[in-house]
Write a structure and sequence with these properties.
Blueprint (H helix, E strand, L loop, with lengths): L9 E4 L2 E4 L2 E8 L7 E5 L10 H25 L1 H8 L5
Antiparallel strand pairs: 1-2, 2-3, 3-4
Helix pairs in contact: 1-2
């Protein structure tokens, strides 16, 4: 099980990706290039051009990584996490 939720807890509702009731990302069609999509994050950032399948896959993976990192920081604390990422060197 992942720290921030299992894979099956993430759900697509139309073009929006949710974890529970929290919207994590959305895929939006590009205004210039037909058939191309971008990931739009909740903070307003947008990705580069992707096809629809890749946009959904990439947004799911990035959202899972971010949620898991937040959960690890809460669980271990920032200092302990940084030490473990540095290979145990304080």
């Amino acid at each position: 099980m992942a720290y921030g939720g299992e894979y099956r807890q993430y759900a697509w509702k139309c073009d929006d990706l949710y974890l529970g009731k929290k919207r994590l990302a959305r895929i939006v069609p590009d205004e210039t290039y037909a058939g191309m999509w971008r990931i739009e994050w909740c903070d307003g950032r947008r990705s580069g051009l992707l096809n629809r399948t890749r946009a959904k896959d990439a947004s799911m993976l990035a959202a899972m990584r971010e949620v898991n990192a937040e959960a690890l920081i809460k669980k271990l604390g920032v200092a302990k996490l940084m030490t473990s990422m540095a290979g145990g060197v304080a």
